[in-house]
Every structure is written in structure tokens, then in C-alpha cells.
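Reviewer 2 asked us to include a model.

Predict the structure of this chain.
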Amino acid sequence: MKLTVWTYEGPPHVGAMRVATAMQGLHYVLHAPQGDTYADLLFTMIERRSKRPPVSYTTFQARDLGGDTANLFRTAAQDACDRFRPEAIIVGASCTAELIQDNPGGLAEALGLPVPVIALDLPSYQRRENFGADETFLQIVRHLARPMARTARVSCNILGPTALGFRHRDDLAEITALLEEMGIEVNLAAPMGARPGDIARMGAAHFNVLLYPETAESAARHCETAFGQPYTRTVPIGVAATRAFIAEVAALAGTARHPDEARLRQPWWAASVDSTYLTGKRVFLFGDATHVIAAARIARDEIGFEVCGMGCYNREQARALRAAAKQFGVEPLITDDYLEVEAAIAALQPELILGTQMERHIGKRLGIPCAVISAPVHVQDFPARHSPQMGFEGANVIFDTWVHPLVMGLEEHLLHMFRDDFEFHDAAGPSHHGGHAPRSLSDAPGALPPHPQDTSERKMPEAPAADSIVWLSDAERELKKIPFFVRGKARRNTENFAAGKGLNEISIDTLYEAKAHYAR
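Predicted model (C-alpha cells):
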């Protein structure tokens, strides 16, 4: 463990909370100190849920450590069963409570509660949130699901959507509608919206649709082995992936019915936009592996961007990310340290970042536009409207979301025309994507404070000092002819070139020499 001001994933018990909160009739008894109740705010404040997660904490304090903390857990478990009357209970310990080794599973089993009790063994110091969600859902399926006769009509289970997931609510609605158009019944969706009694009849479906490998792949593999249920491997994010998903589902279900594509606008929108606006834009992607891999394919194959870098924070999916990065010819970045991500972005200088909430902050700090494609996200990425990432409507949403931070050709033309206006001058930059950020990172409003671990052996790339290089007026005028969304990169490259040549002044000749140098 290490001290940090940001983390991409919480501890495993937060993953278990995501599963419990997504389900109904399930209660989570968590052996944890008083401070760990902060996790409730993730769901009530960020996801805007109208009620608290179904979690009971033992909330022991420092003075309790010299006494019988096990009895605190017994009391909390019994009270939760009596008060909430759940259909099943999951029990576990937070990372702090794990150290006192009270064995919540054994204690709960000894109580003889009248409902199924599922013990979770989540290694808090080796694993993280997504593993916690995946393992929790696997244990629930193992304990509750049973083999049974298949439904009369072809049906499937949809696996993976949880609370606090990036657009999981809307993805579930979109894929459910798509399957119904194909004449396939949804036996159940889980964890989101499922009850323990629903899990018991998982075996009745003919196959499983796996939407999010991070949270349900282990359960899908278990069902394949225990119930003979195959599961889908294609994640339907993007036009090509959605069509491949439909073909895969049709083969599993033995149906020839295909959903209507009349609502799909993304291909024509991408083809009809000013080609100089989209084609060849360099993009860096970071987030969970599933969304990053899907987004990279959309960026290159469906919109015409150039993928200059990609990475993920969840090491369980690192192999898939590395394989995808090899196809794109880029070096994979597997890390959960946001400082490494920021250093990679600063070095690559992409024109667009596709990432998490943290990459949104990094983009603002570096003056690079960013669109969010993956959890973790903040409150603005839980919209009130229907806004999926999956299916054909998801492809439309993705196009709109990614295009918004960039500057349309017409807007660029107008801004150039009115560049001397008080509102649209060059120093102001485009107000909607952080191009207005000061060039000095330390002066940027809301800039992240220096990280306590940001030692001399891992520093951000430094630009030449502003007072050591002077731009001559003819070079400054020529620089302003460059579109402002790449002007910052041109300025940095030219200053680096001049510093390397030992020049203190940049003339128009220096500007074009630098351009020729970096074009080679």
C-alpha cells in the first residue's frame, strides 16, 4: 500500500458493495471501523441513489480493539437480519478489519440465521475493487444458482451491470431492448436489479451475455462449467462490435432475426464531418481494459483517429490490453498511478484524451481536451437522460461525446476571424475543454497539488524556461496561423528545438526548421 491523493479503484469491499447495492433483497454485513462508512457517499452523492446501500457496519473503534470485536460482528449480523429481513446475507471485512482476523464468515454461520449466509474472502492488500465485485458475484452465483430445465423459449442471462458502473444502467436497458428485437427473452439481469431468488433460476437460460468482464467473467465461466451455458465474448461497444455481438448472439440462439439499424447515425456522422477535423487526430486512452480496448477500435476504425497510446489500471485484464496495444503498435501502460499516466500524456502530447475522471483533470491541467469513457467517474457522468455506451444508440452517444471537446472546422474559422475580440482572442482559448488553461501548470486554477511521492526519480517532462527563450514578432505572428488546438504543441516543440540548438531567440526560420525537424 502507498499514500496517494487519488486511486482508480477502491479496496475489494467497495466492489462487494457495488454488487450488494445493485441487487435487491441482499444485505451486506461489513466488519469495519467507523471511518469506513465513507463508502456510502459513493452511491448516494456520486451516483445520486435515493437510498443508502444495503450495508450494516460493525463500526468498531480504537477502544474496542482491546475487547471482543467478534461480538460486535455477531450483534450487527443478527440486528441486520432482524431489521431488514433480507433473502440472503453476504459477510466480509474491510481492509482494516482484516488485520484483526475475526473470521466474519465463521461467526455468521455459527449464528444459525434463517437466510443463506455467503462469506466473502477478499484479500484487501493484494486486490482491488473490480476483483471484489467479480469475486462477490461469483460467490453469490455459486451459493444460490442451481441447474434446472431450460426455458421453453430461447432465453439468456445478462451478466455484469453493477452500481457505480459507467453507464451500466443505460447499457442494460439498451442491450435488453436489442435482445428483445431479436426475439430472445431475458431470463434475468444480474447483479443489477436481481434478487437472490432470481439468481437461483440462472440455470434456466440457454446462454449468458457477458457485458463487463471486470465484474462478471468469473461467474460466466462458472455457469459455463456448472450449467453448460456458453457466454458471449464480444462487448457491444461501437458499431462494428455491436454487429459482431448480434452475430454471436444469433449463432448461440439459433435465430436469424436482426435488430433495426434505423436509429444508427454514427457512421454517416463520422463520414460527413469535415475530414480535417477528425481524421488523424492523435488520441490517448486510459481506463478499465474493456472500455479502453473498445474505444481504441472505435477511434481508429470508425472515426479515423490515430491511437498514440493506451493503458489500463486493472491488472486482472492486463493481458488483453497488452494484446490490443500490440495491434495498434503502441506501448501499453499498465499502472494504477495517475502520475505515470500524466507523465505519459505530457510526453505524447495527444490532441484528445479518452479516460476516467482523473484524465479529465489531467487534460485540464495540460490544456488537452478529454472525454470520459470509463469508471471511475464523477457525478456529471451519471446523467438523468438515457445515455448508453453499448448498442447502436451507444455508438451515437459515443460519437457526440467524443466530438464535443474538439473544435469544429466552422468554429475554428469563426474564432480565427474574431481572434482580436475580447472573448475569442488566442489567450482565452476554447472555453469548453481546458484550452484556456495557463501555460504554466503550477499556475493553472485547480491544479493538482504536488504529490508526496513525486520524487526526483519520476518528474514530469520540463519545458524550457519561458524567460530564457524570446519569440520574435514575425515568428509569433506565424505561430498564430496554426490552429489553436495544436498550437501549444507547436510552441513546445519549437522551444525544445531552440533549446537543443542553444538558441535564445526564435525567428520565423527557427519555427520552420523545427517543423521540418519534427516532421522527419
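The domain at 436-450+461-518 is CATH 1.10.8.550 (Helicase, Ruva Protein; domain 3). The CA atoms of residues 282 and 351 lie 5 Å apart. We have added this to the supplementary material.
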